[in-house]
Amino acid sequence: MANFVKVTERTVLREGKGHAFTVEGRELALFLISGTVHAIENICPHQHIPVLAEGELEGTIITCPMHGWQFDLATGKSVNASSRLTQYEVRCEGENVMVAMPEDNEASWW
Ligand code: FES
């Protein structure tokens, strides 16, 4: 069962912009898109660099600033490579943005 942890407050997030956070040793990137918060691991699957929060966002597509791999934040799937993002479940409780941290023995992707 997932353990929801407060990452930030909703007012910190700007529409269409990435934000990097470190929570329980995990590097997260949060994006507010059309009022919905998306949480992914900030580490690009290509070269395992924590840069996705700095990527360019168009709709729900994030483009890695390093080599241009693109991912759909809605599905986690890459649109131009054979890879996928690690996504995290998000729950907003009032102004608090909570993200589900997987158990150590639980896969962090779905
Ligand atoms: S590190 Fe992201 S595309 Fe290369």
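^ FE2/S2 (inorganic) cluster complex. Residues 3-101 form a domain with the Rieske Iron-sulfur Protein fold (CATH 2.102.10.10). The beta strands are 3-9, 18-23, 26-33, 36-41, 56-58, 61-63, 70-72, 87-88, 90-93, 96-101.
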